[in-house]
């Protein structure tokens, strides 16, 4: 087995050339590995940086696989070969497939000539690997741009569909043009805030804590905080973050109109934890209002209830409970957390 840090292969099975070459390279702090045959050399070529090979070792071997490997190198690769030939002789025509890769060194050679030839080959290989890395980075950027464009198309279509559904539902639940303008504008702002969080992460993930904070910071203006947010860091994928963010907006809006946040002494406590259901991670969230006016069961279904029951429950596969206890509204949600993100994180 070739050592992992050994980049120079030596194939010179006849005489002492291999040992002499390895000794010279070792003296010059260049690690090498002696291969007894062309077959073993072939098995190490993908990891090697350079090949030092005696002319007769190639002539006496089946060269087809070696020639094929050289011919089918990737575009960035021009594998360097130091060919040890005999002084005063032409290179055998059977080795013409090596044209373009060769540094020819006539034997007997000076130690400095071999060391300098191998160093030159290793520098050339290092440049090639830099080109390879550059090409891979460019390809990664191009792939990411394709994903982002595809994701953007998807998000724009979804956003327009959300706005249209929101407009229709708001119109049905509004008693006047003023009500419609006020509620629709507030919902658009909430949607925009969620989109801003997603934009910060290439339209992929949004923090559950930041979603809640964004919706509730407007209602927590007194010196003594009335809103408690308590739970671990959880990131929601965009398809879940948008409807959940809108749901938080509706719950917060209702609380400020009819619930705990409508009274100075009222408090809102939101706690969540992460559990599991089968193979899925599940966020268990509890929204508990205290100190507000006596709660009554709503007499009609508003936009918020429709959003929770038809969008959050169905689209997000969440299990919901809305409890209108007289001493405070309680909302519970078991939300499966998907881990998949389309665009890899930086």
UniProtKB/TrEMBL annotation:
UniProt KW keywords: ATP-binding, Kinase, Nucleotide-binding, Phosphoprotein, Transferase
Spans traversing the lipid bilayer: none
SMART domains, per the entry: HWE_HK
Catalytic activity: ATP + protein L-histidine = ADP + protein N-phospho-L-histidine
Span of domain Signal transduction histidine kinase HWE region: 151-233
EC id: 2.7.13.3
GO molecular function: ATP binding; protein histidine kinase activity
Top EC category: transferase
SUPFAM superfamilies, A to Z: CheY-like
Matching PANTHER family: ETHYLENE RESPONSE SENSOR PROTEIN (PTHR41523:SF8), TWO-COMPONENT SYSTEM SENSOR PROTEIN (PTHR41523)
Name this polypeptide is given: histidine kinase
Organism: Mesorhizobium loti R88b
